[in-house]
Structures are given as C-alpha cells and as structure tokens.
Amino acid sequence: MEHGMLIHQFFDYHTRRNPEHQCLLFQGKSFNYAAIAAESIRIANGLRDQGIDRNDRVATLCENCPEVLTIILACSRIGAVAVPLNYRLAAPEVAYILNDAQAKILIAPDMALVDLLTSIRPLADPALPIIAASAQGAENWQHWLSQYQDTAQFTDEIDANAGILQLYTSGTTGRPKGVVSSQRNIIALYISSSTSVSVKAGPGTRDLVCAPNFHIGGVGTLLLPVLAGASVVLHSSFNPMAVVDDLEKHKIDNMFIVPAMIMAILDYVPNIEQRDFSSLRQLLYGASPISTGLLERALKIFKCDFYQCYGMTETTGTIVSLSPEDHIRALRDQPELLQSCGRPQAGVEVKVVDAQGNTLGIGETGELLIHSEANMLCYYNREQATAETLQDGWIHTGDSALIDEHGYIFLRDRIKDMIVSGGENIYPIEIENILSQHPAIGDVAVIGVPCTKFGETPLACVVLKPEQSLDEAEMIEFCRGQLAGYKIPRQLKIFDVLPRNPSGKLLKKDLRMPFWEGHARGIN
C-alpha cells in the first residue's frame, strides 16, 4: 500500500483555511467549503452504513449538480469508486454500464432524470439499492442524507493508487469500457495542469463548468479548481445564453468548452459583440481542433488567452496543450499550428511509434504514445484491453500523429478515420480545415466512402449556414489549389446537424455506417 495525497485531503485543507469561502454556485444557490465538506461526510457515513466498502462502485445518475462533487469526495474518504453515468445514453446502455461496473448502489439526487431512472430500473439488478430525489428511489435522497452525522473519523488507510473515479469511454469502438483513475492520477493531473497554464485557480478565482460531469472534460474541470481552493459556477448542462450571462455576472476567470460550444455561443447569442467579457482571462477548449475562422471570431469576442487541450479519459484528461502564444502565432503567420494539439504539459512524455513499436523520428507518422503519472490504472475488469492500451506505463492512444522538430504534436486523425484512396493516405482534418473556411459552411466532417475505382474516396458532410447553398462543383472549385487533387472530395452531402457525442467529438462511425453496409472496409 502506498500512502500519498488524496483529493479529500486537499479539499479539507481549504475548508480549514477558508470554511466560508464559496466553493460552488449552482442555480442561484451558493455553497461554501464548509457546507460541501459536511455533506460529503454525511454521504460517506451513509455509504458506510449501506455496507459500501473500499473499492466498491458508487454509481451516480444526475445532470451536473453539487452532489457530483460531494459524492466523489465521500468516495475519496472511504476508498470507494465514483461512477458517474452518462445520462444521454439510452436506458439499456446505461443499464449495461451499471451492470458492467458492478455498482453496489445507485444515487440519483436530482429530479431531471426521473424518466430515465424509471426505464433503467427493470434492466438493473433488482437488489441494487437506489437512492433518488424522486419516488423511483427505493429510498428518498434527502431523507436518507438527513439520517447521518456530518462528523466522522475515517481511520482507514487509503492507498494513493486506489481507484477513485470510473468513467466510461464514449465507445467509438464497440461497448464502452470503464476507465479507472486513481487518486494519484487526479493529483498528477492537478499538478501538471496548474504548472502548465498561466491563469492558475486559487481562492478568489472563478471557473465556469458546463461540460458534462460524467465525462473527464467535465469532472476534471470541476475537481481541479476545487483542489486549488477556487470557486466554481456550475451549470447543469450547456446553454449558450446562460453561459454568456454568467461569464458577465460572476466575472469568470476561466472556462473549458469544446469548439462546437464556442460556435453555438457566437452564432446564437444575440448582440454578442456588446457583452462584457473583460474578466475572462483564459478559455480552454478540447475534443476537436478549432478552425482559423472560428478562432478569429472567438478571439475578437472573448479577448482572452486560448489553450487547445488534448487528452483522453485514459490519461485522466489534458496532457498536451497548445499555448495562447501558439494561437497568436497561428493567426499571424503559421495557420498550420492550429492543426497541432500542442506540446506535452509538465511531467508528460510522448513518442510516436510504428506498428512494430519502434520509436519514429521527427516528422514521421505513427501511433502516439503517452507516459505520465496521470495514465489510468486500468479498464475495469478488462485485462486484455488494458494490456493492449497500457504497455510498460505508456498509453497507446490509437491516434495517428507526428511530432515536428519543435516538439509540436500533429494528430493525423484517428488511424481508423484515415481514408486510403488509390494507395494514398488522406487525412480528413486537412480537407476539413480548408472547407471550414468556405463562407457557406457552418460545420463539416469528411469521411471515406466506398469507391469501385479507388477503394474509398472522401465525402464532405456539411451543415450550411442559414440561407446559404453549396453544390459539388462550387466545393471542388473552392478546394482546387489548396489541396492535392486526390484529396479533393468529389461528393457532398448536406446535413441539418452532424452527430456528436456529449464531449463534442464528431461521431464519424455514425456518418460512415450507411455507406459501408454490405462492404468490407479495409480499415476499422
């Protein structure tokens, strides 16, 4: 067993120092550090009483809310593992995760998901205790909580390498897998992150969190400011108007969102130019690259530092970032920098390897591997998958990438998103970056579709801006001279909206599926 730092110890430190300091602001209610600490101890006592032991899984079903934090802290106190469920999935998918995680208890502390809970119940283990805000609970959440004291002596030694969070990957390949992150992983992420960004969270700073807390981008951005003693303005889900209002009203310093959210704010909030974002100092975005056009618009409006973050659930979040200086350079005279996800953060090592595992040189494309203290413990109960992804401490990301002479990492899309056309490798991101600059195009994804002559060929899936039109000839003409002939898509399909998962990642497999029925695809 290894003693080490635990997340509730950091939290308790701030509670002792600044008990009255605002920890969370949620739906107009303010919760100070003392209140959050007290509730987390109550929950820990309740879980103990319920027979929850070290390493047991505690599932939560809710939109973003204060209980996400109090339940994770409670789990930290008793050595249990929090499993936040993705409420955007269909009931059978949520039930699959509940059963896969072997959850010992399900807590549903808000009323927002009553219907989902009703549909999950018959699919879950009938013996599973459910504590919920609604009548669907075997026991009422508030009543259950009120039975327990907010004083406790948890004397158990908790191992720093024990699991604390189990998040399910979006399953871009098959069934979702439970990624187990340890206490040490979260602390490593905190140290690396606070060392690597210029605007540091602390007492007196405010973060706005609107990414879903069942996702590493959401739960990471909730935990990190709190570990630093800062305040978090928490949104139950993403709403562009509410985000803009709170940025102004609460003088937010820092926020993490995805490019699709930035686009929604700029496109749907009226009179966005007149709003006052002078307090915003830093904006972090991730899940996908940003186009030059969107970045220019966003910088004009927000006038703050932009960081692009790259990470995975398996690396407990961001381990590579593109700095504000890089963004400025990109707009000045190096647009290609925006295609880079940046350089490794403090304490992170990266390398690119070929199929045999040999390390490749500068500018050579292979699979990106990552070594850091934040690398996950394992996939829950998936020894084979863990052994494939985590080898000698290195995470095999499944991302194809090259590293240039300055250490910038350029993702070449998921290896499986690569289009192999007539023996040429085509990386969709190159085409998407060009098409995103077309005045009629609001959103774009490029996929490979079957082609008798070349095996596969690029198809542009496009969402048009209001009152705009586009045909194939115009698109081909626009790309000419900017892309090699074989890369230019000859086919165009117009969509109302492109499919994305909750973290904002494009679901290219959903776009590809209808085209590949009855075809064997050489890749994937």
From TrEMBL:
Transmembrane segments: none annotated. Residues 12-380 form the AMP-dependent synthetase/ligase domain. GO terms for molecular function: ligase activity. It comes from the Bacteria. Pfam families: AMP-binding, AMP-binding_C. The keyword Calcium does not apply. Keywords: Ligase. Gene3D superfamilies: 3.30.300.30, N-terminal domain of ligase-like. Residues 430-505 form the AMP-binding enzyme C-terminal domain. This is Fatty acid--CoA ligase. It comes from Zhongshania borealis.
